[in-house]
Design goal:
- By secondary structure, this protein is an alpha+beta fold.
- It has eight helices and five strands, in the order αααββββααβααα.
- It has a five-stranded mixed β-sheet.
- Strand 1 and strand 2 form a beta hairpin.
């Protein structure tokens, strides 16, 4: 019996949910320094801020809504880029779905973690049932290249929020 990588939904929201929140609007180096500048692993990488802001802009341009239904732990995260408020790229909602999302994805917390770590082939996960999609598979696959640049950022994020066990789980 495998033990889920996330202790509970609070842990999941703190890790993946907060990671998804980073690109909700244009960010600055000052914000990143305030969040993680105290951590010994923090350093400023030339294009990192640009990548974060580009990812947010790409999600905004999708004008799509996605809901992720998780098991192990039970959690729901929604991303809504249909009508962002001024200054925002998209909204992230914890614990609730959206009315008529373009795409609803059902998976486990472990698969979501491996996905953000860049270890999951989405087409293969869909074929094998590790991820189930309701709605437009085309929209789901269109979002993928927009967020692929987030995969290395997720690994660095895990280091900065002191989650070495989650980082190690991506290397096995």
């Amino acid at each position: 019996m495998n033990v889920p990588i996330f202790r509970d939904d609070v842990h999941f929201y703190r890790v993946i949910g907060e990671f998804m929140n980073i690109a909700t609007r244009e960010r600055t180096w000052e914000e990143l320094r305030a969040w993680w500048g105290h951590h010994p692993a923090y350093y400023e990488q030339g294009n990192e801020l640009e990548q974060i802001n580009r990812i947010g802009e790409q999600i905004r341009r999708s004008r799509a809504a996605f809901v992720f239904y998780l098991t192990d732990p039970e959690a729901v995260i929604s991303i809504d880029a249909r009508r962002p408020t001024p200054g925002e790229h998209y909204e992230v909602l914890f614990g609730r779905g959206l009315d008529q999302p373009d795409v609803a994805i059902v998976t486990t917390g472990d698969v979501a973690h491996q996905f953000w770590g860049g270890n999951i082939s989405v087409p293969l996960a869909l074929i094998t049932g590790k991820m189930r999609v309701k709605g437009s598979k085309a929209k789901a696959l269109q979002l993928l290249p927009r967020i692929v640049p987030a995969f290395p950022l997720y690994r660095r994020y895990l280091e900065l929020i002191d989650e070495p066990a989650l980082l190690r789980a991506l290397q096995t």
